């Protein structure tokens, strides 16, 4: 269950930005969309959904990209470049693309995440010196690194100086040999730590607490699902038989509006490539669905398993352009499912960006679930805020107001007037 994510100096976000899934204080309405979790008699709350608005090139995708890049860095355990992975987000493997390209003076990159997994509250942050934008051969350094469990500091790193706190509070996680040889092993950890390695996924993992490091890595691998450019997603199943028909998928596709043709995944002739989604014709001949079905239908079929897995396992599903080419009625229904306590029993969360104003509806989203990303025309830098930041007294953001109309009236910002008239006049007059 994601509570907060922060970043600074990530692409268009030159200044620090906090993306919060913690309900805003004194926010009323749609309380059924609030997730609750108790840890040591203390109750934590989180939003089950969030929608992000903003004009083109404002930085909506960058906030998702920042989460995905942080995830990639953690899972590989260092801030070195790796060969291209095929990810649409090149910053995952080429970290010189991260720093803001307008900076004249060097500035560190910051990432921080706070989440609840099972019965633990995890807060992990890093401060990275990555040099300037496009400085590929820069000697990168992990400047600071910090891990807190249940609001108690476990370790803190300043350059290669390590400090442990509250070891007695974490005895259940610590490898016994580390506690016995603490002073000697601490010296070894500090002298062997590389500047561009994350301590969490290296020395901490092997000497201090393998269980806790694996626990955190598992969260990023299996519970924080980031989809950068949803149009590239293809969720073909892995199977050994010649074909497979997912009855739930067919039933969902039928309700979405597909023809009565069955959907089937057929093994690709090239075994290295994923199976091919096919539509079965009345003569029982399968043809690739992309030749027969609409683009929106194929997109829905590929996104449906992601939603199912999120609800079944309690994932935080973060999707770039989730609703592109999909009818808003289908998206609204999925949003309401994440708000349904009888279905969303595992505390799954749905976060996506969009240009569709139909979701600016106070019967669908709380004010603190509606987020905005705007970009300053002069500085070219992005900022983030929520509708709940406007307050309620004497504003057009209070419940009962027409959010969509007010958004188009530029009451909330994160919108841009666009007029191509004079440009096209010049073009058509050209000989």
Explain what you see.
This protein is α+β, with helices and mostly antiparallel strands and 431 residues long. Helix content is 26%, strand content 25%. The protein has eleven helices and 19 strands. Strands 2-1-6-7-8-9-10 form a seven-stranded antiparallel β-sheet. A six-stranded mixed β-sheet has the order 11-16-17-5-18-19, sandwiched between helices. It is globular.
- List unreliable stretches of 5+ residues: none
Count of β-strands: 19
* Overall SS class: alpha+beta
Radius of gyration: 24 Å
Strand content: 15-25%
* Main beta-sheet strand count, sense and barrel state: 7 strands, antiparallel
On the 0-100 scale, what is the average pLDDT? 90
Strand order of the largest sheet: 2-1-6-7-8-9-10
What is the succession of H and E elements? Answer: EEEEEHEEEEEHHHHEEHEEEHHEHEEEHH
User: What would the principal axes of the Cα set say about the shape?
Assistant: globular
Number of helices: 11
* N- and C-termini, Cα separation: 60 Å
